[in-house]
């Protein structure tokens, strides 16, 4: 082993550490006799490594061998190309809602008089995207390091016997809950309280314009954790910035329902 290390140093070879997987050999024993080692490695000259800045290595599990495969990808860490629609890459995060600087950015953007409501909503990703990248990119890197550390702990020495027992336990609990759960079905539906027809008074109530109070009630019932649409804005964005956006949102909703009503009458 010492001679091997001397060869690596003499040839200035560097070890390309894998980003997924770590151990490449297992002795296929049970209990305390189980041993995992990182025997197989991928080395490259330091000059060659500098030519490929996005080089990456991953360990691929093999079912018919006690040695796993180490794959080299020269473009593995290359950032993905920008999507055609930048809105698809933007998602409003709940943790931003209490940030004072974020609220100032939204207020300044929303108070512009030269844009309509849709343009303001559509432009949120343009101003919040760079802000969140600068503020939270370091946090994401720390999370990635912790996740990699957890993966290595999980990939550490363990007993095959305990792992099999855990799998059987999970499968058993699943089918136990599946076949013992009961649902109370009510096949008898009471229809007597439903009127046989819609009178004119009910019809007038159904077709009347929505009030500001009804729109506000609908927004208050909106789940702030609901998945955002193509604009990347979830319910928490509107709830946390309601004082800024309320006027434009109400006008937008009234205009939408009026257009919808005219369309339905025309059809």
In words, what does this structure look like?
- It is built from ten helices and six strands; from the N terminus they run αββββαββαααααααα.
- The chain has about 270 residues and is mostly helical.
- The protein folds into two domains: about 1-75, no CATH class; about 80-155 and about 195-265, no CATH class.
- The strands form three sheets. A two-stranded antiparallel sheet has the order 1-4. Strands 2-3 form a two-stranded antiparallel sheet. Strands 5-6 form a two-stranded antiparallel sheet.
- Helix 3 packs antiparallel against helix 5.
- The longest helix has about 30 residues, at about 125-155.
Report the mean per-residue pLDDT as an integer: 76
Rg computed from alpha carbons, rounded to a whole number of angstroms = 30 Å
Global structural class: mainly alpha
- Taken from the alpha-carbon principal axes, the silhouette is elongated
Largest sheet: 2 strands, antiparallel
Total of domains:
2
- The amount of helix comes to 40-55%
H/E element sequence: HEEEEHEEHHHHHHHH
Number of discrete helical segments = 10
Could you tell me how far the N terminus lies from the C terminus, measured between alpha carbons in angstroms? Answer: 83 Å
Strand order of the largest sheet: 1-4
Describe this structure in a few short sentences:
This is Reverse transcriptase domain-containing protein. The chain has helices at residues 2-10, 46-51, 100-110, 117-122, 124-154, 160-180, 200-207, 212-220, 235-240, 242-266, and strands at 13-15, 25-26, 36-37, 43-45, 56-60, 69-73.
